[in-house]
Specification:
The chain is an alpha/beta fold. The protein has helices at 9-14, 16-28, 44-48, 56-65, 77-86, 100-107, 127-132, 148-153, 177-180, 182-198, 209-222, 231-235, and strands at residues 2-5, 32-34, 71-74, 96-99, 120-124, 160-161, 203-206, 227-228. The chain folds into two domains: 2-107, 3-Layer(aba) Sandwich (Rossmann fold), CATH 3.40.50; 120-235, Rossmann fold, CATH 3.40.50. The strands form two sheets. It has a four-stranded parallel β-sheet, sandwiched between helices. Strands 6-5-7-8 form a four-stranded parallel β-sheet. α11 (209-222) links the parallel β7 (203-206) and β8 (227-228). This is L-lactate dehydrogenase complex protein LldE.
Length: 238
């Protein structure tokens, strides 16, 4: 299967190991992975701030770089949702973009993993992934619960998923929201981190590095030994 890998700018700049883990995971499952070299920001920051008309250059660049691919995969729920809803289709393309765990579960139909991570892990189900991409069921709905990231984590040997009090609560990052509403964002992040700490998590994971970055800053300021690790790194660990 031929797959184009889209790596958001903040992963490229601050968390390159997430990109490497994503590449290695896809290759483990037989994908022929291509990385368009001229890719850059998808334009989400401008759109989220009410300036989507200023992201036309980003849109055009994305479409040019990923032209001709049937599958595009990204280790970021928020960027995936933005591209899916606001970018793809503008050029008549039939390309489909998938967040990594979505692609592994829905397209590759992964049923077992050769991964080992002997730690207690808390799963943060970010808003864009859960409510936008439907990666997991929302707890307020009277419906059968499911979680694609959780399904994959349960395949990892040695990993113990902790049970959170409020498993689908926002961490408060929200992209430019954390700049415009700094105090609210910080308090939401502290509450989210506290839930994981109460249940003795050693690691916090999720499908969005932006959320993990936000919580990582809070953990560091607290002097906590709890670490954050993107789900791709855990699924790829041996």
């Amino acid at each position: 299967m031929k797959v184009a890998l889209f790596i958001p700018c903040y992963i490229d700049q601050f968390y390159p190991n997430v990109a490497i883990a994503t590449l290695e995971l896809l290759e483990k499952f037989g994908c022929e992975v291509h990385y368009p070299l001229n890719q850059t920001c998808c334009g989400q920051p401008m759109a989220n701030s009410g300036f989507e008309h200023l992201s036309k250059g980003c849109d055009k660049n994305f479409l040019e770089n990923f032209k001709g691919y049937e599958y595009i995969v990204s280790p970021s729920g928020s960027c995936t949702l933005h591209v899916k809803d606001h970018v793809l289709g503008k050029d008549g393309s039939n390309a489909k973009i998938y967040e990594l765990t979505e692609f592994l579960v829905d397209v590759l139909k992964v049923e077992n993993l050769q991964a080992y991570f002997p730690h207690k892990v808390g799963l943060h189900q970010s808003c864009h992934g859960q409510r936008g991409l439907k990666l997991a069921q929302m707890s307020e709905l009277v419906a059968e619960p499911y979680s694609k990231p959780e399904k994959l984590l349960n395949m990892v040997d040695g990993l113990s998923l902790i049970e959170l009090d409020r498993k689908d609560e926002c961490c408060g990052f929200g992209g430019t929201f954390c700049v415009a509403e700094e105090a609210v964002s910080a308090k939401m992040g502290k509450d989210r981190v506290a839930d994981h700490l109460r249940h003795e998590a050693e690691f916090i994971t999720g499908a969005d590095v932006s959320c993990l970055m936000h919580m990582e800053g809070i953990l560091r300021r607290k002097g906590s030994n709890v670490k954050v690790k993107h789900i791709a790194e855990i699924l790829n660990s041996l």
